[in-house]
Amino acid sequence: xxxxxxxxxxxxxxxxxxxxxxxxxxxxxxxxxxxxxxxxxxxxxxxxxxxxxxxxxxxxxxxxxxxxxxxxxxxxxxxxxxxxxxxxxxxxxxxxxxxxxxxxxxxxxxxxxxxxxxxxxxxxxxxxxxxxxxxxxxxxxxx
Length: 143
Hints:
Structural class: mainly alpha
Number of domains: 1
Helix content: 55-70%
Largest sheet: none
Strand content: under 5%
């Protein structure tokens, strides 16, 4: 069965929604529909990883460049905590993947922190030094 998936994605989405609403399940483009559903889950996970990375960068800078602590870093930390909290509220099953997501995000954050601070990455802890509860605590700022 040929569909508009490759030639008119928006039209394809509307067509699939209409088929679902009308109960015409046999006419659905299940192969592409499944791929899109899986992609949506991957997007949510990628967003969480990105938010964690953006949180870890100023936390690392806060700890390793204490003399430069400022309002901008504090506000970035606060903003990302709120956004991470909302993402996990909308997709609580992402919590099952948190250890791996945190590890990946932290590794990327260390590279960014090295670039932004000129502190060699070997100075930073090799794995995330804070627990999820700790870095999500609104009162937590590393010493």
